C-alpha cells in the first residue's frame, strides 16, 4: 500500500476484509472485493456519508473514538490500529507506551505562537519540541542527549540535564514545582502501566534522588497546571512569568507556554529576549 493517508488505509483494509467474516453474505452481484462502504459504516456505528468523506480526505481530524470504531470494524491488528491512529494525527491507545510524536497540526499551532517561549512535552515530561524563545529563556537543549531532555530527570537526576536547567522557583512555595511533576508522573504511570521506559525512569529517580523518593511516597496524582514562575536568567536576572500547561486531548502532549501581562517587568524582559533572538538570526 503506497498511499498511507488515512482514507487510503481505510479503503485498502475495507477491500481486504472478507464480508463473510463480518457477517455479510456473499452474492454474485457484489462488485466490491471486500466490505461495502455502507457495511463498514454500519459496523463502526458511523454514517455512510461520513465514512465516504473520510475515505476521500474531505473529513479530517477524526476523533480517537471514531478511529477506534473503524479499527474494530476492520479487524485490524494492533500494529495496523496504531498506524491508523498515526495517520489520523493521534497517538495509539494509552494501554501501550508514552507517545513521542508531535502531530503536524500541533506544530502549526505552536509555530503561530513563536513570539512566546513554548516547549512541547510527552506524558513522561520528555521535551520533544521547543522554539527559539524557549532557548532564549531556558537555554538550548539541543546539545543534550535526548534522554537528558526529560524535565523530571533534570530536576531529580545527576546527569547533564540537571546542570542545563536554569534555577526556577514557584510562587506556590518551595518544592511545589517538584511535587507537581511527581504527581503528574504518578498519573502517567497509571495510564501507561506497561511502558518499560517510563517504569525505568521512575525506578531510576527513586534510587538516585531521596527527594524524589520522598515525594513519590506522599504525592497524589494530578496533571501539572499553571503557575507563576521565576527563572534565573544569566543576562536578565530574575524573570517572573505566567507559566501555563495545556494538555492536548487525544495525543497526551503538554504544551508549556510563558506569558506576561502588558506593562510588567516580565513583559519587557520577553521583549528583550525577542530582540536578542532577532539580532542573532540576522
Write the topology of this structure.
Layout: H1 6-16, H2 37-44, H3 48-55, H4 64-73, H5 78-87, H6 104-111, E1 118-121, E2 127-130, H7 132-138, H8 151-156, H9 160-164, E3 168-170, H10 176-191, H11 196-208, H12 210-218, E4 227-233, E5 237-248, E6 253-259, H13 265-281
Antiparallel strand pairs: 1-2, 1-6, 3-4, 4-5, 5-6
Characteristics of this structure?
282 residues; alpha+beta; 434 Repressor (Amino-terminal Domain); 2 domains; 6 strands; Lambda_DNA-bd_dom_sf; Helix-turn-helix domain-containing protein
Q: What would you say this structure looks like, in words?
A:
Residues 28-81 form the HTH cro/C1-type domain. InterPro entries: Cro/C1-type_HTH, Lambda_DNA-bd_dom_sf, MLTR_LBD. GO terms for molecular function: DNA binding. This is Helix-turn-helix domain-containing protein. The chain folds into two domains: 6-87, 434 Repressor (Amino-terminal Domain), CATH 1.10.260; 104-281, Beta-Lactamase, CATH 3.30.450.180. Helices cover 45% and strands 13% of the residues. It contains 13 helices and six strands. Strands 2-1-6-5-4-3 form a six-stranded antiparallel β-sheet, with helices on both faces. Helix 4 (64-73) packs antiparallel against helix 5 and helix 7 (132-138) packs across helix 13 (265-281). The two termini are 45 Å apart.
Amino acid at each position: 500500500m503506497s498511499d498511507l493517508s488515512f482514507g487510503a488505509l481505510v479503503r485498502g483494509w475495507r477491500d481486504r476484509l472478507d464480508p463473510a467474516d463480518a457477517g455479510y453474505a456473499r452474492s454474485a452481484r457484489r462488485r466490491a472485493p471486500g466490505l461495502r462502504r455502507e457495511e463498514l459504516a454500519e459496523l463502526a456505528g458511523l454514517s455512510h456519508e461520513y465514512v465516504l468523506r473520510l475515505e476521500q480526505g474531505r473529513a479530517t481530524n477524526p476523533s480517537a473514538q471514531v478511529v477506534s470504531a473503524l479499527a474494530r470494524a476492520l479487524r485490524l491488528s494492533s500494529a495496523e490500529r496504531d498506524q491508523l491512529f498515526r495517520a489520523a494525527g493521534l497517538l495509539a491507545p494509552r494501554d501501550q507506551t508514552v507517545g513521542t510524536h508531535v502531530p503536524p497540526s500541533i506544530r502549526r499551532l505552536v509555530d503561530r505562537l513563536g513570539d512566546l517561549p513554548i516547549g512541547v512535552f510527552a506524558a513522561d515530561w520528555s521535551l520533544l519540541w521547543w522554539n527559539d524563545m524557549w532557548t532564549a529563556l531556558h537555554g538550548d537543549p539541543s546539545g543534550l542527549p535526548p534522554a537528558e531532555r526529560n524535565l523530571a530527570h533534570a530536576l531529580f537526576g545527576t546527569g547533564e540535564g540537571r546542570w542545563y536547567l536554569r534555577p526556577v522557583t514557584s510562587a506556590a512555595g518551595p518544592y511545589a514545582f517538584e511535587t507537581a511533576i511527581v504527581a503528574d508522573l504518578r498519573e502517567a504511570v497509571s495510564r501507561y502501566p506497561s511502558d518499560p521506559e517510563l517504569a525505568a525512569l521512575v525506578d531510576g529517580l527513586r534510587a538516585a534522588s531521596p527527594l524524589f523518593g520522598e515525594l513519590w511516597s506522599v504525592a497524589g496524582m494530578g496533571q501539572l497546571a499553571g503557575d507563576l514562575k521565576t527563572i534565573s536568567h544569566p543576562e536578565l536576572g530574575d524573570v517572573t512569568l505566567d507559566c501555563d500547561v495545556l494538555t492536548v486531548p487525544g495525543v497526551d502532549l503538554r504544551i508549556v507556554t510563558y506569558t506576561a501581562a502588558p506593562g510588567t517587568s516580565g513583559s519587557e524582559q520577553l521583549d528583550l529576549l525577542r530582540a536578542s533572538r532577532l539580532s542573532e538570526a540576522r
